[in-house]
Design a protein that fits this description.
This protein is α+β, with helices and mostly antiparallel strands and 564 residues long. It is built from 15 helices and 20 strands. It has helices at residues 30-36, 52-67, 76-97, 184-201, 205-218, 240-248, 301-315, 348-353, 360-379, 430-433, 440-456, 487-496, 508-517, 531-534, 536-562; strands at residues 4-12, 21-26, 38-44, 108-114, 117-123, 127-132, 135-138, 167-172, 178-182, 225-234, 261-262, 265-273, 277-284, 290-296, 337-341, 345-347, 382-383, 392-395, 400-402, 409-410. Strand 18 (392-395) and strand 19 form a beta hairpin. The longest helix is centred in the C-terminal third of the chain and has 27 residues, at 536-562.
Length: 564
């Protein structure tokens, strides 16, 4: 069963010359409704210089458009916050550039209904109410001064301050819930009791919205009156969270061997066997297609949660640089696993171990594809956190694919960061050893180490063993290991693996651009770190020893002079 919502809206100018309110709603269908939900928003532009209506309409229209363009992996509050922060910056910039638009500011109350939950993003003094089982609850709080003479003066609004501080509220949906989004032109003259009575008297949302706005003006309201009413007729039987919860309850499959069957899949061979996961090559019964089936060897609560999050992220990577997850309905699998497309080929680590010599041109071409894959991830706010030659597959079809999202992190908020620093030590960025949070820069560092290794078969700071606490000086210049490397490759790789994140590439796109330009627009060679920054203790020890030696010589000279 899909989410079913009836909706209605009304907006009356009232005694004002201009209607500075604006409201809107989008109710998609199918997969988009499941992934992003229904979005309703109402805004009340701040009066002054005619900019209130412009701010309100721009904010609501922009939110309705841009929210559905955000990645499905982003948590709802994160997506709303990103879109509205961009809107706030635009309004602030317009206000600064045009003195006549100094009042480009607006309140906003936005409501997302998705699956069995609701999320509210709110700023200003518009309000969201919930009528449930006859009881009315105000879900938002007004951002106005508490002083009686200033209780209509906003303390927060979009376009009012460079720092946008939104309130977020979320909760569980129930059939029969009625939500009201209203500007102060409705709730101020009517009050909570009268609003509740009108919502109960008019079950059809459009009639309720019209009745609320008309009653507000009839009660002496002097402002624009706008309302959006949503009535929840039915909630889904399951959402993504419910699906994951159901999958969490599935048992682990037994250890499988060639010839065994698991649901619709025949096991052909074991591709990978680690302490935590198993990967099989399988054939589907109905069409004979070959796939890769991944499951857990053992399943603690944390491991199962991480495994399900990996599947969730992998499903959203629609790109040639990643394996494609095969959609399986809840009833199609009797155990905990997921299935993805199978691509014959060799990892870059296997090619290195076989003695493959990587020329500069070939390495740069592979690097460009790897960076494009990371760009796809980072645009979705996913951090891979284990980029290395073992996880980069060069397929027989010539396509490079980035594998294994087992420790990937959804930085958009849909997945909680785990403890510790996952990954392989020699590819882990220096700041992570110091406790810094993961970031796109740490993935780019690992990509730089990977290219460095392809060309030199060495690591820029030497091989780092597990549980080692390394100290980082300057990385070894690649051409000092492999003499045929040109200076522009040295500069590129040294920037990619710089100890200081501020000296590295900021984005995958910047790294890719520098790589594609190559010698035509080569980077400047990075300066070597002075000893005082690299080894301050060693420098002061040398100074102290030199000073001591000088003093001893001076004493000897004085004693020799006295003896004459």
């Amino acid at each position: 069963m899909a989410l079913e919502v009836l909706q209605g809206h009304a907006s009356l100018r009232g005694p004002r010359e201009v209607n500075e309110d604006f409201c809107g709603l989008i109710a998609p269908a199918g997969a988009e409704l499941e992934a992003k939900g229904l979005l309703a928003a109402i805004a009340d532009g701040v009066s002054g210089h005619g900019g209130g209506r412009q701010a309100a309409e721009f904010t609501v229209r922009g939110l309705l458009s841009d929210y559905y363009g955000t990645p499905a992996t982003w948590a709802v509050p994160f997506a709303l916050d990103r879109v509205l922060n961009a809107t706030n910056r635009w309004l602030m910039a317009q206000g600064s550039a045009n003195q006549g638009a100094a009042s480009l500011a607006t309140t906003l109350s936005a409501l997302v209904l998705r699956g069995r939950r609701y999320v509210i993003a709110h700023i200003g003094d518009s309000r969201v109410y919930l009528l449930r089982k006859g009881g009315m609850t105000q879900l938002t709080r007004d951002h106005v001064w508490e002083h009686p003479d200033l209780n209509h003066v906003l303390t927060r609004a979009i376009g009012l301050d460079t720092h946008l501080a939104l309130d977020f509220v979320d909760g569980q949906l129930e059939p029969g819930d009625v939500f009201l989004l209203a500007t102060d032109g409705v709730w101020a003259p009517l009050g909570r009791s009268k609003i509740a009575d009108l919502l109960k008297a008019h079950e059809e949302p459009q009639q309720a919205a019209s009745a609320l706005c008309g009653a507000a003006l009839a009660a002496g309201g002097t402002d624009n009156a706008s309302a959006v009413v949503l009535r929840v007729e039915g909630v889904p039987n399951s959402t993504l969270a419910d699906t994951l919860a159901g999958a969490r309850a599935l048992p682990l499959p037994p250890l499988l061997h060639p010839g065994d069957w698991l649901d619709a899949f025949e096991v052909l061979e074991t591709l990978h066997d680690s302490r935590q996961t198993l990967l099989y090559r399988v054939r589907r019964r109905d069409n004979g297609q070959i796939y890769a089936l991944k499951t857990l060897r053992r399943g603690s609560e944390d491991q199962v949660g991480t495994f399900l999050a990996e599947e969730w992220m992998a499903q959203r990577l629609q790109s040639e640089y990643f394996a494609e997850v095969l959609p399986l309905a809840a009833g199609e699998r009797s155990a905990l696993y997921y299935v993805m497309s199978f691509h014959p080929g060799h990892s870059l680590a296997q090619l290195l171990e076989s003695g493959r010599h990587f020329a500069v041109g070939e390495t740069m071409a592979l690097g460009a594809k790897l960076l494009k894959a990371l760009s796809v991830l980072h645009r979705l706010h996913i951090l891979h956190r284990d980029v290395k030659p073992h996880n980069v597959l060069l397929g027989g079809d010539g396509v490079l694919r980035l594998l294994d999202l087992g420790v990937a992190l959804d930085a958009g908020g849909a997945q909680v960061a785990d403890a510790g620093t996952p990954g392989t030590p020699s590819y882990i960025a220096p700041e992570l050893f110091a406790g810094a949070p993961p970031a796109p820069a740490t993935d780019l560092y690992a990509a730089g180490v990977t290219l460095y290794q392809l060309l030199t078969r060495k690591f820029p700071y030497g091989e780092i063993e597990p549980f080692q606490h390394p100290r980082f000086g300057d990385p070894a210049v690649p051409s000092s290991i492999r003499r045929d490397l040109p200076p522009w490759v040295d500069a590129l790789l040294l920037k990619a693996v710089a100890r200081d994140p501020a000296r590295r590439f900021e984005t995958a796109e910047e790294f890719l651009l520098a790589l594609e330009r190559g010698p035509q627009n080569a980077l400047a060679a990075p300066r070597r770190t002075p000893l005082v920054e690299r080894e301050p203790l060693k420098l002061w020890i040398c100074i102290a020893l030199g000073s001591l030696a000088g003093n001893l010589i001076l004493v000897w000279l004085l004693l020799a002079q006295a003896a004459r």
